[in-house]
């Protein structure tokens, strides 16, 4: 496969660019760039893949064969080159939700069999953004998180989390969506999903349930993305509350809440402290149209040495 070689070419190309731009930079900066670059693979493959949900199987357009698509992780201030290869049957363009930089060619449709490289120059964006296909019908399955970590010499302006977890709220349609579906009405999905899992409430025993595993007294940075085209979602975890720390690619004033209300395309970063009795708790995502609720599970896996 050419992808490794291509990765290497990108690596050397990016290093070269960066050395040019920062010829006076210290070793520290250089190392940050190398480690940051190694942590994000710069290519995405659009392809048709078979998925079974709600007890029926259909072919959907995916990125790298996964639903939702893979996460891209970078650091504040990075310049990111993402080479998108369209191996699917439809022309698609990607939108980088929340990126301030205007991206050349971002309206251009990538035809089947073609590839296109987005060059994204990050400024002060921090936290969580996301990417998705521009057209509503393709965006239902072609989307993923774009996580921007603090720069190597930066800390979070809040207590450092034990780890972080992305939660993408999505929707699933039994029928195939096509170019005819330029808009999607609220309440028209057959299921809502948490990281691709419809959960146990839809009555199909083959469906899987999303589980987030936590350690007792762990502090988690949870990045919640509403990738549902036309539905405001209410998100919560039983017996737990959240501290909101960021919204749509910026830190925000801290506030406490028991549930999050996310408009379509909205992203909220919260801290969740696993400080309840060891056990498991329902995660819920409820569409405002009143359609079916979906569930996941927050599961405590270990007990702390402190108790
Ligand atoms: C997508 O898949 C390609 C090929 O397997 C891989 O090189 C690349 O790292 C993947 N992209 C992401 C963002 O995981
Ligand atoms: C559900 O799972 C069972 C057992 O794995 C399998 O035989 C069956 O075909 C599945 N049904 C559907 C509709 O996917
Ligand atoms: C398409 O990908 C190839 C490597 O696979 C790369 O050399 C070329 O520059 C890419 N084209 C665009 C328009 O990004
Ligand atoms: C998609 O478009 C078809 C044809 O216009 C229509 O029958 C169907 O209801 C649409 N589906 C959704 C989810 O809007
Ligand atoms: C959301 O639904 C409304 C009412 O059906 C419709 O007018 C609008 O175009 C939809 N928006 C999207 C992004 O699908």
Automatic annotation (TrEMBL):
Domain Plastocyanin-like: 47-151, 165-301
Domain of life the protein comes from: Eukaryota
Stored InterPro entries: Cu-oxidase-like_N, Cu-oxidase_2nd, Cu-oxidase_fam, Cupredoxin
Signal as UniProt keyword: yes
Signal peptide boundaries: 1-25
GO MF entries: copper ion binding; oxidoreductase activity
A matching Pfam family: Cu-oxidase
SUPFAM superfamilies (UniProt xref): Cupredoxins
Keyword field: Signal
Homology family: Belongs to the multicopper oxidase family.
Protein name (Swiss-Prot/TrEMBL): Laccase-14-like
Species this protein is from: Gossypium schwendimanii (Cotton)
């Amino acid at each position: 496969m050419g992808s490794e070689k291509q990765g290497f070419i990108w690596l050397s190309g990016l290093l070269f660019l960066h050395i040019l731009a920062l010829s006076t930079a210290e070793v520290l900066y250089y190392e940050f760039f190398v480690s940051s670059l190694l942590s994000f693979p710069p290519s995405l493959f659009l392809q048709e893949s078979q998925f079974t949900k709600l007890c029926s199987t259909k072919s959907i357009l995916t990125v790298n064969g996964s639903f939702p698509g893979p996460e891209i992780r970078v650091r504040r201030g990075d310049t990111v080159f993402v080479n998108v290869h369209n191996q699917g049957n439809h022309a698609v363009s990607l939108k980088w939700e929340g990126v301030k930089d205007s991206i050349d060619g971002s309206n251009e449709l990538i035809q089947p069999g073609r590839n296109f490289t987005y060059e994204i120059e990050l400024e002060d964006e921090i936290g969580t953004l996301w990417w998705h296909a521009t057209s509503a019908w393709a965006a239902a399955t072609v989307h993923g998180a774009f996580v921007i970590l603090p720069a190597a010499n930066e800390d979070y302006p809040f207590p450092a989390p034990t780890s972080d977890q992305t939660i993408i709220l999505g929707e699933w349609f039994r029928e195939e969506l096509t170019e005819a579906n330029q808009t999607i009405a609220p309440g028209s999905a057959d299921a809502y999903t948490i990281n691709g899992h419809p959960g146990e409430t839809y009555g199909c025993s083959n469906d899987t349930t999303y589980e987030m595993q936590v350690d007792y007294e762990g502090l988690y940075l949870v990045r919640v993305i509403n990738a549902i085209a036309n539905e405001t979602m209410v998100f919560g975890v039983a017996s737990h509350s959240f501290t909101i720390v960021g919204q749509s690619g910026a830190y925000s004033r801290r506030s406490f809440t028991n549930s999050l209300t996310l408009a379509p395309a909205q992203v909220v970063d919260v801290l969740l402290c696993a400080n309840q009795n060891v056990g498991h708790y329902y995660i819920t995502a409820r569409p405002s149209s009143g359609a079916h609720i979906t569930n996941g599970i927050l599961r405590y896996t270990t007990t702390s040495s402190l108790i």
